[in-house]
Amino acid sequence: MARCVIVCAGPGQGERPALEPDDFIIACDGGLHTAKALGLIPHLIVGDFDSYTGPLPEGIAVVRLKAEKDDTDSMAAIKIGLERGFTDFFLLNALGGRLDHTLGNLQGLIYLAERGAAGVATGCGDRAALLHAGRMELTGWPGRYVSALAVGGPARGVSTEGLYYPLCDATLEVSFPLGVSNRFVGDTAAFSVVEGCLLIVLPAQETPR
Amino acid sequence: MARCVIVCAGPGQGERPALEPDDFIIACDGGLHTAKALGLIPHLIVGDFDSYTGPLPEGIAVVRLKAEKDDTDSMAAIKIGLERGFTDFFLLNALGGRLDHTLGNLQGLIYLAERGAAGVATGCGDRAALLHAGRMELTGWPGRYVSALAVGGPARGVSTEGLYYPLCDATLEVSFPLGVSNRFVGDTAAFSVVEGCLLIVLPAQETPR
User: What is the total count of domains within chain A?
Assistant: First the structure.
């Protein structure tokens, strides 16, 4: 199944993701500037166009949102992607700008998880993936920091493999960031959670705090 | 009751808060650099000193943490503040750096709320306050964007006053950022929540997305 790539309007140009030929690309409002800068040609443009300035490119479908709406532009794009049957989402430039938008986009990952879809969000060097009652393996980040945080409620039955500080059938609470600043021992690590949502963050900076 | 000001190790110098003479200032590890830059003299220094470099100032009490610990430096400082009886916390330079630390510090606000303490976190221009089953009034931000997000679980019975998009006895879910990009109508707005935690964010940038 193809992947839905949503280019959000976060700061900076972002990191050009490795694209597959069948990725479906949605540019969200000001994210169209980012798409252009990264040389990505969106298949669909979504927004109320309060952050994109300039003429819209010709020949690309546009979904115009009302400025006064319940959905953020990113959430509108997520819903469109789900309606089109995508179950794998990549949100580009979705983190590290306005805190409320970063948190809103992370809530979008929970929205996806509740509907059986997988989501990854990136931005400003951070990368976050949501794991909902299942197992996730990450490869290719030897020695790197990685954090796991309960979001939306407690995450129960959390276990890890390949991390410096292992967790075994632990409960992570939303009020206690126990899983921050863990580290890959080797090339591969795995997280599993029995109940609840675990946000797995590969942070931008290498400086611990 | 005096306030506990925790200077975290987030990026940038941060904004010097309006200080009261009886504020108790804790510098967390690399936050000591920030405290110095802002001309703040901490009463206590806490950390495993992986992000602070240089000699520690003389005559200031130090709590040395082990590098391998469950608490982040910020959470250790929060616990020390609670042990000393503070019920009002201000986390400076706590947002906008590594995503996992930003989220960890926001979870620290939930930790405080669960113990009956009030907390505000700032960093990179963003400002976030946690409201736990109660009412909060904000004054002095006319026309400014403000967002309210459920954190840790649903927020029920959410009502607002003085906002462009009013909410009345609404339920906010952690998987749907309904309360993002609201706006002050006048100088004062109020939020109330009957059950659960509401994170109220005054975002840094004025560009909507």
Answer: 2
